[in-house]
Every structure is written in C-alpha cells, then in structure tokens.
C-alpha cells in the first residue's frame, strides 16, 4: 500500500512538473514601442515588442502582447509587470517576456528588464 501511494505521489508530481513546463519565453531581447493600460476596459495591459525574437514578434504587422491579471499569481505580480513594462519603454531597455501557460501572446505574465 505504501509503495502505491509513493508511486502515485511521484506520478502526480511529474504531471504537475510537465504542466508547469508548458510555459515559455514568447519574446526575447526586444524593445517595447507601445504600452496600453487596459484591454477592453478589463484588468489587463498590453505591449508591443520589436527588434527581438519569439512568436510574438512579427515584422509585417503590430502584435499586441496581453498581460491579463487573471494569469498573474496575484494583483501585486500584475502591478509589478506593468511597472516593469513602463520602465522598459521609458528607458529603452530590452526585455524578455514569459508566458507560464502556453506560447500564446494573450497570456503573458512575466517581463524581465535587460541591462545593456
């Protein structure tokens, strides 16, 4: 019985690890050209990133990258992401943007400021 429980727990931990691994960088080493404080009057902000790499960088048209509050761990994390986006556009620093859920451009959560 104990072996079965341990095996099940290890199996569940593996499943959780796989689910967490689905996230990815959707933008790397890019500059922000726009920041919007809301999307559809909802608790979300958006950015436009250029001159970088990732599936949310397009050359032919503007791609908005959305940061919905519901995907952040809490409101404080959401607010820090917005502050970081504002700092990036004001300073001209490059950024990396991460989506913990999948590779879509509408569920971004983390944004990293890169020192030149």
TrEMBL record:
Signal peptide: 1-21
Top-rank lineage group of the source organism: Bacteria
Organism: Permianibacter aggregans
Entry protein name: Uncharacterized protein
Keywords, sorted A to Z: Signal
InterPro entries, per the entry: DUF5992
